[in-house]
Amino acid sequence: MGEIDFNTIGVQLWSILLLVIYAVITLVVGFWLVGRLTNILEKALLKKEIDLSLQKFLIRLISIGLKVLVLISVAGLVGIPTTSFVAVIGAAGLAVGLALQGSLANFAGGVLILFLKPFKVGDFIEGAGHSGTVEEISIFYTHMKTAKNQAVVIPNAQLSNNSIINYSTKPIRRLDLVFGIDYSDDIDKAKEVLKNIISSDSRVLDDPSYMIAVESLGDNAVNIVTRSWCKNEDYWDLHFGFTEKVKKEFDANGISFPFPQHDIHIIKD
Questions:
Q1: Which CATH architecture has domain 172-252?
Q2: This prediction's pTM
Q3: 101 vs 246, more confident
């Protein structure tokens, strides 16, 4: 048996110890730098007034990604092959991506919604075949409450990839109503009645101005359209109140609402 070279072993152990110390220092410093970077990013996102849930998710995602890079770097320092790590991570990422295609699409949609803000909590919107008030915008789903107090949960991918009508963005809305009168009724008189109803309602705005006009000559009636502007919060009250008032005023002024009718001609041989 050969003699044990304690000097060589000591040098090797010392090299390994230095390598471990170096790796630990690199790991600690790396994690510290990740913490500093995420803090800076968090402050920058706060200044941008990005949704809080999205901020937390992005910070967590970036932090995990950077820490994984630090761990791979440390593994390379101590002599562990990093190629296999990268291959495993890539394969796992591909497998997860294929398995969660729908969820990833919803996530991407949620990020777009929270960044671009086509709507916010409290807005009344119409999209993906539903309409209602937005109660919560999460990373994957948007929660809405319909006018019938029904809870609707919509995947964000459907909202981000399709048209959305946001009724709350603009402070005022235009109310369009059509009233049919009989062909024998006086059009000017009907328009005057409508004008008096609109001008006497304080909810109707002076600017933009309202409009009253004959829209079409229907099969059974002359259709008169009214277009008036009001504040967003007054829209439905004005809609229902105006419709009721027109019925009462037309009755009082002898203006009729014609029923659908057909003329039948009987021909005898």
A1: 2-Layer Sandwich (3.30)
A2: 0.61
A3: 246
